[in-house]
Amino acid sequence: MTKNQPAADAAAPPAAGLPEPALAAEAIAQVLQPLARLMIDHGLQLPSMVEMLKKALVDEASKTYGLAGKGSSDTRISLLTGVHRKDVRRLSEMPVSAGLASPMVSVAASVVARWISEPRFLNADQSARALARTPTRGRAGEPDFTTLVAEVSRDVGARAVLDELARLGVVDLREDGYVALKSTAFVPHEGLSESFHFFAANVGDHLGAVVHNLAPDRRSPLMLDQSAFAQDLSFEQADQLQLQARRLWASILQPFLQTATVAEQRSEGAEGARHRIRFGVYFHDALQAAEPAASAALSKVAAPRKNKRKPAC
Description:
49% of the residues lie in helices and 5% in strands. The strands form two sheets. Strands 1-6-5 form a three-stranded mixed β-sheet, with no helix packed on it. α2 crosses α3, α2 packs across α4 and α6 crosses α7.
């Protein structure tokens, strides 16, 4: 197993240097490959994607690279991005499409997160308790589903959240009036809208961490961005590693959410800027590109095979 980058040291000195357009272009070309597949799979063609890229460039230049106290003029944004000035003005007035995402998904996910992290909603073995749908259906002093939802959001009713979780296959509605959580991971079984929501949030924040770490003028510590990879595996070995990865994630998810819940409670009423965090994990399995026969034979002669375990960032 090998690591693909040095460990992200939180105390590492800030980056300093010039932009690296060639290296950035090479990395972006690789990132674009799975995005191209997503476009083709879901019927997105080049003209619409070009318009989306222009909009993203204009919005980011305006938000992040504006002059102190002055913002950015159309001319400055055009110079930074290469987008024509007439398009800059037009795109600046367009609404941000990300705002169209339904709030129900984040509320439902937050309810599940609290359910598996708040001690009041857990059994002695730390598994999620079955909850009465309403206070009147449960025993005195017991936590219930309506209370759980109210602690997460006052804007969405408990019945609406329950219906959504049931539709997604996350909960089991029992005949005795209790609701049982089927899994400690919020993984929708139906409906692509929720999956696309999490795709955007998870990949977007991961890329945000990478962009932060690679910024030429970075002044703050590196963000965590680590992974590990192995190669020359059989299908069975890859499948076993995926099961192991899922077990490891399940073992760290609950304690991390418990810590995050305490942190949120301690931050209530605190002054100053507010931060949001995302901590995630992924596992990818793909066919390995075949090594050309000539170079493979040469490498075996030139250097004996070594342990291929690699940690990667």
